[in-house]
Automatic annotation (TrEMBL):
Record bears the keyword Ribonucleoprotein: no
InterPro entries (UniProt xref): AAA+_ATPase, ABC1_TM_dom, ABC1_TM_sf, ABC_transporter-like_ATP-bd, ABC_transporter-like_CS, P-loop_NTPase, Type_1_exporter
Any one Gene Ontology molecular-function term assigned to this protein's record: ABC-type oligopeptide transporter activity
Protein's organism: Crotalaria pallida (Smooth rattlebox)
Major localization class: mitochondrion
Membrane topology: Multi-pass membrane protein
Entries under CDD domains matching the protein: ABC_6TM_TAP_ABCB8_10_like, ABC_MTABC3_MDL1_MDL2
Stretches that traverse the bilayer: 156-181, 201-221, 283-315
Boundaries of every ABC transmembrane type-1 domain copy: 158-440
Chain positions covered by the region annotation Disordered: 29-50
One GO cellular component term: mitochondrial inner membrane
Domain ABC transporter: 517-755
Keyword hit for Transmembrane: yes
Stated name of the protein: ABC transporter B family member 28
Length: 761
């Protein structure tokens, strides 16, 4: 009779503890939805040492020993032009592009002698001696996490307090259950209603405290994760271009989604009652209570329960690959669907429906078989959990029952033991799952750190960006995400060190308007192929305000010259100067403002036409009038007006809703708005038909006016009017002159023209 009553009561406790969907299924599904990294284990493991000295992350800029200190630093403010008519500003811009902040820009003035050059020269591009280089450090470190968590001390304090309180409630329940039975059978002189009131309070408090704990922990962790995500995005953004040559976009996306997702889940998926801290505190608490209730029974029962629960939990985790395989099969189906429907025109034109059906059916069948396997494992797992409980209960009934009969253990304590059997079983299994998750999280963090702890940060970009962000962070919440606490104090010295290393200069923006751009004895190999020298002592002067055309055989290095001029890479030897100043003395975000590039395939962002044009001045308050003016000059205004929402029409992914010629004219309008003194046209018209080419060429002629322009074109007809033509061959300029001079030379250019004569007709 007692046993039956106990069982009834216990089933209530069990219900409370037992979640039939339990860990693996729910957990692994949610993991799978984000953990696509199971399909991409190819990331190279750099810097396994993963030094973790970072106490702040910010943009995680390494101290920069490459720059020599100069004592005098004068910051000369440069005001962004405000729009004349604020009321005409495009509304959407204010959200994304417009920050009417007056942003001071700075150049360093000081004595003319320059310690950056001479022996220290190569250090500008970070190629100084190995010992001088900053130690690689992990992006995500214990110290950083601690620092970020400590920003939310109050919430953390509330979380810890409520965790302890709700665990206490949970662990008190079996004791009160025991007392309840003792009152029922009359061995405890306590009022039943008083006891029930206490139990009622306990039942009311526990869920309330749980909610407070979970909400607070979630808020803290979401905030920490937002900062981390922003920091890692920022850290990727400031890597040198070769970093992006090395890693695929998918791999980098994986760091920010699945890998960081795994770090996020370790808390958000583990704050529920049967996992993580809660499970840990329940396991510890239960063991203590068991010992307090019966020091003789506790060791045997405790060890047995722990052993059974741990081994079953470990077995269940070992079935995780089945759950993952099912998730992967699902992902493959969705890939197939996406690919089929996004390429529906290609499928139609090749009559590929049957083939797609076959592929899809194949995937559906493998999804089906993994689903059946999964179902079997789920049911086995579920019954194993029950088996764990039953084994523990049976052991308890045998051992505890004989002690009760012998009068060595009270019925109340026996009933409490039953409750703790459930608590311990589920808490242990939850804990094992959390530990398993932790393993995955450590692997994810290591992956992030191994990719990002290399010294591939582009200092010349990062420090300038850091300075600008710091200024903006005062006004805009969004930018604050990129800074962790104590940012200013900890990085001020790096910043000043960098700033003081800049060469004496007047405003960079004015230099290319008046001086030539020169490539002087430039040697270059791509970092990923250091053995292949692409440029070998190349010399080229782009005269101020004139057009220089680059021609040469495919693979000669024409686009490489463009990449160097844009400072995506730095020369291995030699230098690029503007009005006699080495360009490496300017930070790259400043340099980006003086160079405009229009490519064969211009990339537009998936925002409106107007916003794409305004991207020419991403930091400025761009008025709609300015945008329209640029669009008119680029022959784009008329077609933009014919679009459904005019300047507010969305251009689709990478500008896919526009034609090639329309995209190109928007890119030219963007460059016109940017108004950079140096212009690079890399095969800008080669992908267009005759009509579009004419429209674009007109726009380009307008754009080129007065700018130092470098043109690359395969069609010689587009280069023959250049002021000078440089024939690039074997990594050098082999011939230089006007079209007619080079023809008269009867050299490589003349023979190139000969083979492509049709291009003139
Ligand atoms: N990111 C890169 N990493 C390694 N090697 C590269 C990279 N980009 C280009 N190369 C190599 O550099 C060489 C020069 O390429 P580049 O694109 O400058 O030639 P190009 O003269 O512009 O050719 P084309 O006229 O065909 O566009 C080629 O052999 C190419 O394979």
């Amino acid at each position: 009779m007692i046993a039956a009553t106990v069982s009834c009561f216990v089933s209530d406790v069990a219900l409370y503890h037992y979640d039939p969907t339990f860990d693996i299924s729910t957990h692994s599904q949610s993991q799978l939805s984000t953990n696509k990294h199971t399909r991409r284990h190819t990331l190279p493991q750099h810097h396994p040492s993963m030094a973790s000295s970072a106490t702040t992350l910010t943009l995680c800029l390494p101290p920069s020993p490459y720059y020599c200190h100069k004592p005098t630093t004068t910051l000369s403010p440069f005001l962004f032009s405000q729009s004349q008519s604020q009321s005409h500003s495009l509304p959407a811009f204010s959200r994304t592009l417009l920050h009417p902040t007056i942003t001071p820009r700075a150049y360093v003035t000081g004595p003319a002698s320059d310690p950056i050059f001479g022996d220290l020269y190569p250090k500008l591009d970070g190629s100084g001696p190995e010992k001088d280089k900053p130690r690689p450090r992990g992006v995500i470190s214990k110290e950083l996490l601690w620092t970020l968590l400590m920003k939310h001390k109050l919430r953390l304090g509330v979380s810890v307090a409520t965790l302890l309180a709700c665990t206490t409630c949970t662990l008190s329940m079996p004791i009160f259950s025991g007392r309840f039975f003792e009152v029922l059978i009359g061995v405890r002189p306590e009022s039943l209603w008083r006891l029930l009131t206490k139990i009622g309070v306990l039942y009311a408090l526990e869920p309330l405290l749980t909610v407070i704990f979970v909400i607070n922990m979630n808020i803290v962790w979401e905030k920490v994760m937002s900062t981390l995500r922003a920091q890692i995005f920022g850290r990727i953004l400031i890597q040198k271009v070769e970093f992006f040559d090395k890693y695929k976009v998918g791999e980098l996306t994986g760091l920010l989604t699945s890998d960081l997702g795994s770090l996020k889940d370790i808390v958000s998926e583990n704050v529920s009652r049967d996992r993580g801290f809660r499970a840990l505190s329940e396991v510890i608490g239960t063991i203590f209570i068991l010992f307090a209730l019966s020091p003789q029974l506790a060791p045997i029962l405790g060890v047995l329960m722990l052993a059974v629960s741990v081994s079953i939990a470990v077995y269940k985790r070992s079935t995780l690959p089945v759950f993952k395989a099912h998730g992967l099969a699902q992902a493959t189906i969705s890939d197939c669907v996406t690919e089929t429907f996004s390429a529906i025109r290609t499928v139609r034109s090749f009559g590929g429906e049957k083939r797609q059906m076959f592929t899809f059916a194949n995937q559906v069948l493998s999804f089906q078989s993994s689903g059946i396997k999964l179902g079997t494992f789920k049911s086995v797992n579920e019954s194993l959990t029950r088996t764990a409980v039953y084994i523990s209960l049976l052991a308890l009934y045998c051992l505890g029952g004989s002690k009760v009969k012998a009068g060595q253990l009270s019925v109340g304590h026996m009933a409490s033991f039953v409750g703790y059997t459930f608590t311990l079983t589920f808490a242990v299994q939850g804990l094992v799952n959390t530990l398993g998750d932790l393993r995955g999280t450590f692997a994810a963090v290591e992956r992030i750190n191994s990719v990002l702890s290399g010294i591939q940060i582009d200092d010349a970009l990062a420090k300038g960006l850091e300075r600008e962000l710091k200024q903006k962070a005062g006004d805009d919440e969004n930018y604050k995400l990129f800074f962790s606490i104590n940012y200013a104090e900890k990085n001020q010295s790096n910043y000043l060190q960098y700033m003081s290393a800049l060469k004496t200069s007047s405003n960079l923006f004015s230099l290319p308007w008046s001086g030539d751009v020169c490539l002087e004895d430039v040697y270059f190999s791509y970092p990923l192929r250091p053995d292949v020298e692409i440029l070998r002592g190349l010399n080229l002067r782009l005269k101020c305000g004139t057009v220089t055309a680059l021609v040469g055989p495919s693979g000669a290095g024409k686009s490489t010259i463009v990449q160097l001029l844009a400072r995506f890479y730095e020369p291995a030897r030699g230098c690029i100067t503007v009005a006699g100043e080495d360009v490496r003395t300017f930070d790259k975000s400043e340099w980006a403002r003086v160079v405009s590039i229009v490519n064969q395939e211009p990339v537009l962002f998936s925002v409106s036409v107007g916003e794409n044009i305004a991207y020419g001045l991403p930091d400025d308050d761009v008025s709609k009038d300015d945008v329209i003016k640029a669009a008119k000059a680029a022959n784009a205004h008329d077609f933009i007006l014919s679009l459904p929402q005019g300047y507010d029409t969305l251009v689709g992914e990478r500008g896919g809703l526009l034609s090639g010629g329309q995209r190109q004219r928007i890119a030219i309008a963007r460059a016109l708005l940017k108004n950079a003194p140096i212009l690079i046209l890399d095969e800008a018209t080669s992908a267009l038909d005759a009509v579009s080419e004419r429209l674009v060429q007109d726009a380009l002629n307008h754009l080129m006016k007065g700018r130092t322009t470098l043109v690359i074109a395969h069609r010689l007809s587009t280069v023959q009017n250049a002021h000078q033509i440089a024939m690039v061959s074997d990594g050098k300029v082999a011939e230089l002159g006007t079209h007619f001079e080079l023809l008269a030379k009867k050299g490589q250019y003349a023979s190139l023209v000969g083979t492509q004569r049709l291009a003139f007709e």
